[in-house]
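REVIEWER CHECKLIST
Item 1: Sequence provided? yes
Item 2: Single chain? yes
Item 3: Sequence as submitted:
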Amino acid sequence: MEKDKRTILIAAAAALMLLVAAAAFLWPCGPARGPGAQGEADEARHRRRARPEAGPIEVAVPRVPTSRAVETGPGREAAESEVLCAALQFCSVFGSASLNRERLLEMTRRAAERGAKLIALPEAAIPGYASGTEMDRVVWRRPDTDGDEASLEGHAETVPGRSTAAFGRISKKHRCYITVPVIEHDAAQNRYNNTLAVVGPAGDVVCHYRKLNPWTIAEYAWASEGDRGLGHFETPYGRIGVMICYDIHSVLQELAGEKVDIVLYSVAWVDAHPATWFDERLPQKCRQNSVALVLANWTSVTRGRSGNGYGFSRIVSREGRVVSKARRVFGEEIVYGILPRGKAVPRATPSAR
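Item 4: Structure as written out by the authors:
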């Protein structure tokens, strides 16, 4: 019996020694911080946290659409007492203003050729508003500060500037009004603003609006509070106002007080199904304030990138009726809608000129 116990113990010790030897042999080939899933994740995390410099920004960006945007709209022409509006649902590539501008110009040109007279583009669509997903995002920062965000050096613009000139050529040719969403640098004050300029039938800037209510979560590192007041201007289609994303909570009511008929509303908003905000609360706000909205939202190309935009671009009447909306949550689209013309009283000096 004693002999059997000694045999079992010897066998167990031998087995343990074999396991230790095998582990020592296999260890160099086990999980490492180099190539492989974990290594790639660590490297990607390091790249995201590295301080970007001016020029192309190497961060996770949405895939660029390879096909033309879908067009959604009414099956009839606008009557004399009406105006055809267009909201561009667009997928910006973060930090690629030239690429975004050219693609937006192509979409805007198509809308203008179809006869749209009031055309809205998404918030900061030219430089891009943010990159990444909800939990892994890169946003902008001022060039004179440090941080993990992307430097605005070389990406911010002036108003008037390159983008207003480019879109102004389309607005002049087709006698329409187009929002131009940029991140603006005011060199005299060394301020950066989330800006929405509007170019009109003469090809010049007819409204220069700086977002009054920057969203602290994504704009804290760069955006100054707007200092040009409300943005609205007179057109043959009524008194038109402009507004950017978070402004909805206070500015819409103020624009209503200024007797604005239609608001060109640029957003970079994220919602989820069911789209309670877009389907219920937003139409209710239009009805309460008796103001129509042409809402252009950002989007992603495919599912799984909701932090990069979630569609729902639409046109809502002053009665709160959804006149037209994007057929897709993900993907680029030009949404057309017909609204009644307003009866604005001309002013000598439009607001936010």
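Item 5: Key structural point noted by reviewer: The chain has one domain: 67-340.
Item 6: Recommendation: ____
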